Each structure stands twice: as C-alpha cells, then as structure tokens.
Amino acid sequence: MASIAESSVIEDEATVGPFSHLRAGSVVGRGAQVGNYAELKNTRLGAGSKQHHMSYLGDAVLGERVNVGAGTITANYDGSRKHPTTVGDGAFLGVDTMLIAPIDIGEGAKTGAGAVVTRDVPAGKLAVGVPARIREPRAKPAGGSPEG
Description:
Layout: E1 4-5, E2 9-10, E3 15-16, E4 21-22, E5 27-28, E6 33-34, E7 39-41, E8 44-45, E9 50-51, E10 56-58, E11 60-62, E12 67-68, E13 73-75, E14 85-87, E15 92-93, E16 98-100, E17 103-105, E18 110-111, E19 116-117, E20 126-128, E21 133-135
Parallel strand pairs: 1-4, 2-5, 3-6, 4-7, 5-8, 6-9, 7-10, 8-11, 9-12, 11-14, 12-15, 13-16, 14-17, 15-18, 16-19, 18-20
Antiparallel strand pairs: 20-21
C-alpha cells in the first residue's frame, strides 16, 4: 500500500496514504493528513488540514485546519493556462466539491456536497448548488442536534 512523493515535503506529525500521490512542489503541513487515493500537485496543505478519499488538489494553497471532502477537486487548468486556488483557515469543503480556478475560498467558509464553485466565497459564507450560490450558513440548533 505504497504512496508516491516526488520533490515534496512532508512535515512532522503528518500522515500520507495509502495509494496517494504527492507531485512536485507539494507540502503536507505539520499534523496534516492525506488519505486514500488523494493527489496533490504543487499544493500546500496547511497544518492540521485533512484531505481524505479520492481528491485532487493542484496549484493550491490551503490554510490550517481545512477539511477537504471526498471527491473534491481543483479544476486548475483551462486548456491553456494553470490557475491557483486559495482556501482560508478553517474552511470546510463538502464531498464532491469542484473548485474552478482561479478562486479564493475565505476563512471559515463552507461548500455544500456537489457544489461547483465558479466564484470566490467570502469568509464565513456557504456555497451550494450548480453553479454554486453564496448563502449564509444555517444556524446550529440549540443543544447541537437537529432535534434541539
């Protein structure tokens, strides 16, 4: 269950694999986690961030404590040029999120499952749908459960 790391840096307390691929120029920050079949290309995954399950991050900078949902990708190539993606500290990327670069996801922002994000998401906001629309996140119910 090997992973491949090419010209990349894996910082202390970080975990990688199995079957992941760190392509040239990638950095896995302190305590960050890269999971099964995940790929990074010229990407920095910040300290304490998690990229699990079949996802691709290319030409991206992710802050600290970012959660990358299964199947998330950065669409960084438009057919002629590569474009960057930036994700702020504490952001949450829902499963199957597609980030169409160039794009900035703000600190603490979230994306819903299956969102196709074609424009910047401000800090603390929620992007949902295809194409994604920016919304206010729902308030958490009292008591921490949906039943209240």
